[in-house]
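hi! just following up on the protien thing from before. the input was this:
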Amino acid sequence: DFGEHDASDYKISDLTDKKFVIYPFISIQKDFGYSDVTAKNNQEGRVEKLFEDTSERFELLKKVRNFYLPEFKRWNMSDFDNIILPVYIINLKERPERLVNVLQQFEDKPEFKLHITEAIRHNIGAVGLWQTMRRCIQEGLENDDDLIIICEDDHTFTEHYNRDVFIQNILGAHEQGCDVLSAGIGGFHHAVPITANRYWVDSFWCTQFIVVYRKLFQAILDEPFDDSVTSDDKISEMTSNKMVLYPFMSVQHDFGYSDVTKHNNQKSISNFFAKADKRMAVYQNVYNRYLNR
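and the predicted 3d structure came back as:
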């Protein structure tokens, strides 16, 4: 069916998920300054700008894929037997129920060494979180850690967590120059599949369980910030070398409130993760269909 409010590009896009494009483009539209098809394109330079913007996005994704591929090495499970991962758990002293929740997540996981870090209290929760994360980084630096895992007290492992897969990805991401590896995110803009379950992202939301590599430690400590800081935005701005695991190995437990982000007191954090999961599933489906052969 095709109605008066339909458009050919949207209609074809809806009809199939098997769509490809050649890049660099070998065809573009000449900009006549008007359109007999789309009224809003009756503006000189608009069509040209659409193609320029799209080309820039493809160029970014192409550079990312060329930079990170191929993965360099595969490890044997026996290589992981002596690996202990330092985890810095952030918790406000007045939230003991959240500390109980997060400690339960690690009860059967001896691969982690836990450090409880008392969260810095600030009248702006996001600022207090960033200050506390900097404290964790400082401790990691002083302890001569090669990496640390920063864990907020609402972190929850999903059924997809697997020690060997997790460590394999930590090492693989490190060899590919990754600065931050997330085990699960509540949102993102663009993603590029690097392996079957590790993806580059241009930005991400939520920092409940992130691996931070040593080469970023000092940069985080030196990075200026003010009262508008949020940890996910700040890290997203600081480095382009960010990756996330999918399927997610970590999500945020929904306590019905947030000490960090006030607007999350009106929305369920679980919805953010569900939407991000749904979008990532599309990328993984494409990867498995066309690349993972």
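Helices lie at 8-15, 46-68, 96-104, 125-142, 163-175, 217-222, 231-238, 269-291.
The CA atoms of residues 283 and 289 lie 10 Å apart.
cheers
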